[in-house]
Automatic annotation (TrEMBL):
Keyword Oxidoreductase among record annotations: yes
A GO term, aspect molecular function: alanine dehydrogenase activity
Gene source species: Paenarthrobacter histidinolovorans
The keyword Coiled coil is annotated on this UniProt entry: no
Protein name, entry field: Alanine dehydrogenase
EC number: 1.4.1.1
PANTHER family listed in its UniProt record: KETIMINE REDUCTASE MU-CRYSTALLIN
Keywords from the UniProt entry: Oxidoreductase
Length: 328
């Protein structure tokens, strides 16, 4: 039987603490060689701006093979439709049975925030107490929750172009014991932040490396999965010690990285490494308190697999979802 899990069911099953632990283990498993993380396949036609990405993973600990189909369709905005849609398929790696089909929106948002939290745990200064957010949507709300699990965050400084989005952000984070300050501009966010998370679907860079301060950690998260879209300018990438979730994926999907390379600010060899070996202590992360560290988060299939295992097991435990006999 295949368990179908809709967005509303997945929302009720999400647990950030458990997701952070699953994501951290997933990164470590890649580094240890007990999980396989191939590069993504990006499909597009010259007649459309749409891209369709296949993001796969295979893992021994979770006993799963998985694939997510992510459709990134900017033209949907004019139609009042989501510009990104995705579905995640989980299969038993031993038998090949399709165990589950999950709507991708909630798992992607949650595991993305969890990945930023794991990166911050290992790369940020442990006394980091001010979180800066460029962007205030649902992903920003998830990032506040995630960061509170790993660092002593006392204050959040947030910027958005939309007053409505900022009001919703304040309302949905009011239950957290943190001070929220609305920034008048992006530079103000960087002047205040110990940790910065960029969470916008930007095409042109919003964040300038000239604004980076010694000791900062940056999670570059929001740009669309295209090598020509970015949030961080080339100077920012040059100044930081850059880590990625997957080198093969970053070279295919990261405009933050590849545009800095194309402009001559850095080379691919300047990347310090992937996050997994930092977790397993095979490569160093932050070297000193003045390091500027940057995690270029482009999204990998192994994280979909990790949260997929967690959500599937929880749904089975509570008898949730819809069973479908796909073999009939």
């Amino acid at each position: 039987m295949t368990l179908v899990l809709t967005a509303s069911v997945l929302e009720s099953l999400t647990n950030m603490s458990e997701t952070i632990a699953a994501v951290e283990r997933g990164f470590g498993d890649i580094a240890r060689g007990t999980a396989v993380q191939p590069g993504p396949v990006s499909l597009h036609l010259p007649t459309s701006e749409a891209r369709h990405l296949l993001m796969a993973g295979l893992a021994e600990a979770q006993q799963l093979a998985s694939v997510k189909l992510l459709s990134d369709i900017p033209d949907n905005h004019a139609l009042g439709l989501p510009t990104q849609r995705s579905s995640i398929l989980l299969a038993d790696r031993r038998t090949g049975e399709t165990l589950a089909l999950l709507d991708g929106r909630i798992p992607t948002r949650t595991r993305t925030a969890a990945a930023s939290a794991v990166a911050s745990k290992y790369l940020a200064r442990p006394d980091s107490s001010t979180l800066g957010l460029v962007g205030a949507g649902a992903l920003a709300i998830a990032h506040v929750e995630a960061m509170l699990h790993v660092l002593p965050i006392e204050k959040v400084v947030v910027w958005s172009r939309s007053a409505t989005t900022l009001a919703a952000f304040k309302a949905k984070t009011a239950h957290h014991a943190v001070q929220v300050e609305i920034a008048s501009n992006i530079q103000h966010v960087l002047e205040a932040a110990d940790i910065l998370c960029t969470l916008t679907p930007s095409v042109e860079p919003l964040v300038k490396g000239d604004w980076f301060r010694p000791g900062m950690h940056i999670n570059a998260v929001g740009a669309r999965p295209r090598p020509t879209h970015r949030e961080i300018d080339s100077e920012g990438m040059r100044r930081a010690r850059v880590f990625v979730d997957s080198l093969a994926t970053a070279k295919e999907k990261s405009g933050d990285l590849m545009m800095a390379v194309s402009e001559g600010a850095m080379t691919v060899e300047d990347i310090q490494g992937e996050l997994g070996p930092v977790i397993t202590q095979d490569i160093p992360g932050r070297m000193n308190a003045d390091d500027i560290t940057l995690f270029n988060s482009v999204g990998i299939g192994m994280l979909d697999l990790a949260i997929g295992r967690l959500l599937y097991d929880t749904a089975v435990l509570h008898g949730l979802g819809i069973d479908v006999d796909m073999a009939r």
